[in-house]
Design goal:
- 2 copies of one chain form a homodimer.
- Chain A is α+β, with helices and mostly antiparallel strands.
- Chain A is 26% helix and 39% strand.
- Chain A has 5 helices and 6 strands, in the order αβββαββαααβ.
- In chain A, strands 1-2-3-6-5-4 form a 6-stranded antiparallel β-barrel.
- In chain A, a hairpin with a 2-residue loop joins β2 and β3.
Chain lengths: 144, 144
């Protein structure tokens, strides 16, 4: 692979990457650190708040328990239509409560045009508390 | 997300996942473990040999140095046309020499229809030794 060179590593999101996150439906792969040190990977719907990346999860998920134990996360964003163009973002996570379950609806409306409950009833019925995972970039390595 | 349930965790590749890997161009995200424990993510062209996943890299890459230090890797496969369907594969890596640089050509022909040199001249000119990374699954968690 590697048909294009990397940009230098920075701690903010390059303009092209911001544009991609804002204008596309970004299914990002998020790596957290398991109890045994092995990376745990999940796919999430991702949105942006300034330079931070946000996604929704629940307190019952393994990735949440991993982040509470070790708040470091690494994110890979690959535009499906341009798989040679991608960004690896290493960051530190803070977790915020989402008592009104607002983020799942916000993101579901962007990604599917439906409220979260209409898109995924069983997900919406999960009684576990919803939280917002906020990833603040420390290093961004991209060829976007 | 989560519109479909997970299959149980297994240590072999489900038939549907094999079929997807064989018949599609799989750009997989591979997580290795950095010196500080934080996951390092890259995107690779992936092919299959039985239950093992194979990709090519060089001995100058960080992911290679990570794997020599700690041979655990986690792979995420997401079909771009079906992003709600995915597989997380945790495995252990063995590294094999590739003195004839055969794997880059094999995979490039599958993915691009061109020899690796024709697709990516600067990559082919990289003098660093090529190796085959072979990931043997220990746990496969999928909804494919």
């Amino acid at each position: 692979m590697r048909p294009t060179p990397f940009t230098d590593s920075v701690s903010t999101l390059p303009e092209q990457l911001r544009k991609h996150i804002d204008e596309s439906n970004v299914f990002a792969t998020v790596a957290t650190i398991g109890t045994d040190g092995q990376p745990h990977l999940t796919v999430v719907w991702l949105v942006r708040d300034g330079d931070d990346l946000l996604y929704s999860t629940t307190v019952s998920r393994r990735q949440y328990r991993n982040l509470i134990r070790d708040p470091r996360a690494t994110v890979m964003i690959v535009p499906p239509e341009s798989p040679y163009v991608y960004a690896e973002i290493r960051g530190t996570v803070t977790v915020e409560p989402d008592p009104d379950r607002a983020l799942p609806d916000q993101v579901s409306l962007k990604f599917t045009g439906k409220n979260y409950r209409d898109f995924n009833p069983s997900g919406a019925d999960d009684p576990a508390d919803r939280v917002i995972v906020r990833i603040t970039p420390a290093k961004v390595h991209s060829r976007i």
